[in-house]
Structure formats: structure tokens, C-alpha cells
Design brief:
- The protein is mainly beta and 142 residues long.
- It has one helix and eleven strands; from the N terminus they run βββαββββββββ.
- The protein has a single domain, classed as Metal Binding Protein, Guanine Nucleotide Exchange Factor, Chain A (Beta Complex).
- Helix content is 5%, strand content 37%.
- The strands form two sheets. The chain has an eight-stranded mixed sheet with strand order 6-7-8-9-4-3-10-11. A three-stranded antiparallel sheet has the order 1-2-5, with no helix packed on it.
- The termini are far apart.
- The model has no long low-confidence stretch (mean pLDDT 92).
């Protein structure tokens, strides 16, 4: 069966968790400190789609509360970070889930369109020059 043009497949490092995105994602860089820590990198690249446009394969995914307003998931076998999902209390769209673009089989097929969390951008993180920028909207009392 030929892969539909808009479908993007991906998964974790060990292959235990696989997914398919049945719609074109909204992609952006995120420079917030939470994303930096969850990825172990200078920034994250998120590919957002509606939950209804996701197909999962595998049963090793583990979800955890990463903040009072969001949950993240990773593969319980190899530890690859997979998703970010906001709670209703965040004020963000809870019908969407973000996948880490680096887990896509072909990440070259997506292009970030903007920067998010720019107030926390590291001065040496030189990427996506000229794209629109937005500060973090989410907040909570720690």
C-alpha cells in the first residue's frame, strides 16, 4: 500500500513505539526551558496535529506530568521523548498533541514556521532566522 502524501510516520529509537500522522502538522521551534530539559537540547521542534489524526502502534509509551499544565510521553523501552499534550487548565488547545519532529522517519518533510518561548532562547541557538517569534503564553503557580 502506498503511503498517502500527507501521512508522516515516525517512532522511537528502538522501534517499539510507532505512529502515523494522517494530517500535515503545524511545526515550530520551542525554546522554553521545559522543552529544553525534556529533550536535552537547546530547543525542541514540535509537530502538532489533532488527536484524531494520529495512529499508534506499540505499547511501551509512558506518559508523565511534566508541569501543572502539561503531560509528555516517551518510550518506556528506549526513553525516546515522543509527545507533549496540554491540559485544559493551560488555556491551550487540548485537541492537539505535539510530536518531536526528530522522531519522524523523514523530518526533512516538515519545516518549522515560527519560534515559541523566545524569552528563553539561548543566545547561541542560531536557527530559523527571520521566522515570526512569540513569547510563552502558558503560566502556572509552581
Amino acid at each position: 500500500m502506498e503511503e498517502r502524501e500527507q501521512e508522516l510516520k515516525g517512532g522511537c529509537l528502538c522501534g517499539a513505539m510507532r505512529y502515523v500522522l494522517h494530517a500535515a502538522p503545524r511545526v515550530h521551534y520551542c525554546h522554553c526551558s521545559m522543552c529544553r530539559r525534556s529533550t536535552g537540547s537547546a530547543f525542541a521542534v514540535h509537530a502538532w496535529v489533532r488527536w484524531d489524526d494520529v495512529g499508534w502502534h506499540g505499547d511501551t509509551q509512558i506518559s508523565y506530568r511534566s508541569s501543572p499544565i502539561a503531560r509528555r510521553s516517551f518510550c518506556g523501552q528506549c526513553g525516546s521523548p515522543l509527545t507533549l499534550h496540554y491540559d485544559k487548565s493551560s488555556g491551550m488547545d487540548t485537541e492537539e498533541v505535539a510530536f518531536h519532529a526528530g522522531t519522524l522517519d523523514h523530518p526533512e518533510r516538515v519545516t518549522p514556521a515560527y519560534h515559541y518561548g523566545v524569552e528563553a532562547r539561548l543566545p547561541w541557538a542560531d536557527c530559523g532566522a527571520g521566522l515570526p517569534e512569540q513569547e510563552t503564553e502558558e503560566s502556572w503557580d509552581a
